[in-house]
Amino acid sequence: MAKKKEVTVEERLRALYDLQLIDSRIDEIRNVRGELPLEVRDLEDEVAGLNTRLEKLEDSLEVINNDISSKKNLIEEAKALIKKYNEQQKNVRNNREFNSISKEIEYQELEIQLAEKNINEYKAQIEQKKEVIAETKDRLKERQTHLKHKKGELDAILAETEKEEQALIKKSEDYKSSIEARLVAAYDRIRTNVKNGLAVVPIERGASGGSFFTIPPQVQMEIASRKKIITDEHSGRILVDAALADEEKTKMEKLFAKL
Questions:
Q1: How far is CA 71 from the centre of its chain?
Q2: Model pTM above 0.70
């Protein structure tokens, strides 16, 4: 049985830096999209909310119109009763009957007055709701236009970058599967905790990339020897020498160009 080839520290460092370059490229693509997906989602929620509000307002208008119809029917019924009672009064036999019918007529007249008052109140409510509906429709139209514009922006960016992003995500997963789990875990932890998601950085002008803390010459020599994985004592980032970084950048740029 063939013995499994031992992976050198240098190979691990190259794989880690390649992984960093891939993940940084994914970050760049996502930064181009920026807050657009969130903006689109918020606008979609707002449009849905305005549509729901419009439906409720339209439903409440229907309820008020039904109430007006009910009050108008009540008025017609009261008028019919008054007419009937007026006819009955012509044939009363005594004052008691006359007074009793008069009270019924008075009650129906009060019912008519109350119903008319209610109708006027309902009409005022309708006018108020119509104003709110008009304002809501204007707001909805403006938000729909804005949503369409933002969706267009997002779709254009996605059309340009989605294929590349998916290919890069697959590459990132492939690279992670080829690196020891403990190193991937360390890489992910550092990437989460540092600015710009840079977990593996090259030495630049005697300091770790993106840092102003100088690395002692002895440590720089150890990093350049590629014999062990060294981290920056200030940021915790994994360090690689500039020559290795340049070689891997050139290699990965060719890979990115094919995606």
A1: 46
A2: no
Max intra-chain CA distance, the chain: 128
Q: Does residue 22 contact residue 172 with C-beta atoms inside 8 Å?
A: yes
Q: Is the pLDDT of residue 212 over 90?
A: no
> What is the distance between the alpha carbons of residues 42 and 53, in angstroms, rounded to a whole number?
16
- Residue 171's CB: how many other CB atoms inside 10 A? 21
Write the CB contacts of 196 (distance below 8 Å, at least 6 apart in sequence): 24, 27, 210
Q: Which amino acid is at 97?
A: E
Q: Which residues pair with 238 in a beta bridge?
A: 200, 231
Q: Which residue has the tokens 């305005």?
A: 50
Alpha carbon 248 to chain centroid, angstroms: 37
Q: How much is the average pLDDT of 65-71?
A: 97
Structure tokens at 2: 């063939």
Burial class (CB in 10 A: 0-12, 13-18, 19+), 177: exposed
> Where along the chain do its domains lie?
9-32+180-258, 36-174
* Rounded mean pLDDT, 61-79: 97
Specify the fold of 36-174.
Helix Hairpins (1.10.287)
